[in-house]
Amino acid sequence: MTDMEYEKKYESMRYRFCGESGLKLPLVSLGLWHNFGSVDVHENSRKLILYAFDQGITHFDLANNYGPAFGTAEKTFGRVLKEDLAGHRDELVISTKAGYYMWPGPYGNGGSRKYLLASLDQSLQRMGLDYVDIFYHHRPDPETPLEETMMALDYMVRSGKALYVGISSYSPEDTLKASKILASLGTPCRIHQPKYNMLVRDIEKGLFDVLKSEGIGCAVFSPLQQGILTGKYLQGIPPDSRAARPEGFLKPEDIKPEILEKVRALSKIAEKRGQTMAQLAISWVLWRPEVTTALIGARKISHIEDALKAIQKIEFSQEELTKIDEIVGE
Ligand SMILES: NC(=O)c1ccc[n+]([C@@H]2O[C@H](COP(=O)([O-])OP(=O)(O)OC[C@H]3O[C@@H](n4cnc5c(N)ncnc54)[C@H](OP(=O)(O)O)[C@@H]3O)[C@@H](O)[C@H]2O)c1
């Protein structure tokens, strides 16, 4: 790539400010939950990361436990950073998280200061980084005082090991509380990471309002409902798909006939719009200005290509939106 081509890649991507901050995120970001672990072929993982970066996808989302094995997605990413992207650190927004089970004993799960600070140090070591751009508490932990968890996030920013902090899968009520605590400590809650797609829409009932009033950005995960919204399961379970893989989090029993009926009906809208089903699903989460970025997963380059095409068409007519609501039952 020539220098000019290199700079042009940023012109082809669109970026949105993350809530009320100066941090811009690309409309599509790449998540490393599946397909980047030690069970996967390194060369494929590497190609996906480099292709995404070449298209202006500056944001890569990880977590301590992504793999399998736990921690190996961070190792894969660290290796690519070192071997292929050395010198580009300042063009990247790298996030990681802790909150789910990571190691045995009372300090490897949840929301304690003990767990979160140790986990961040481990993540930094695996990725070969001095700091991450965003650190999230991965899920609410009702057994730990929220103040303790938020104080741990605040400390990460103060110690220079995270530039921004956020939370994932918190309810609107807990998000508001967390945001107020963080603000009182002097560290804003910058980003929330909820699940959101045409089939899973509970965040419309309260969370978007809190995010707006608190100036928090929104990185939505699983915009394709782990692949169901691509239409790939309409004729059965393809042998190389997530639902067919033993380590995949999508189980064959999650693919219910009534869901497939909805996807079949949605596919007709996609066709009318001149989009693939996957493109429609990604465009749809992005039409909302509250959504900062769609966190996609990918196993093939063509999956990223589809997501990039989706960005070109995020406007919807009222008629299309109403029809989609009718199909999914909202
Ligand atoms: N905070 C949290 O608790 C949380 C939870 C889940 C995810 N996340 C984040 O969100 C990211 C994305 O989640 P996700 O992987 O579930 O996202 P997704 O975009 O809903 O699903 C991605 C999967 O769909 C299939 N796919 C994608 N594009 C396709 C296309 N054009 N045609 C056919 N199949 C296609 C691929 O699976 P196949 O293997 O079937 O091809 C791909 O791996 C994760 O990597 C992670 O960073 C966060």
What is the fold's blueprint, element by element?
Layout: H1 3-12, E1 15-17, E2 24-26, E3 28-31, H2 42-54, E4 59-61, H3 72-83, E5 93-98, H4 113-127, E6 132-137, H5 146-158, E7 162-168, H6 172-185, E8 189-193, H7 207-214, E9 217-221, H8 257-273, H9 277-286, E10 293-296, H10 301-311, H11 318-328
The structure holds NADP nicotinamide-adenine-dinucleotide phosphate.
NADP nicotinamide-adenine-dinucleotide phosphate binds at residues 31-35, 61, 138, 168-169, 193, 221-227, 230, 232, 241-242, 278, 295-299, 303, 306.
Summarize the structure.
With 330 residues, the protein is of the alpha/beta class.
Task: Walk me through the structure.
The protein is α/β, with parallel strands linked by helices. The chain starts with a helix and ends with a helix. An 8-stranded parallel barrel has the order 3-4-5-6-7-8-9-10, surrounded by 7 helices. Strands 1-2 form a two-stranded antiparallel sheet. The protein is globular. It has 11 helices and 10 strands. It has one domain: TIM Barrel, CATH 3.20.20. The chain is 41% helix and 14% strand. The longest helix has 17 residues, at 257-273. The mean pLDDT is 97. NADP nicotinamide-adenine-dinucleotide phosphate binds next to strand 10 and helix 10.
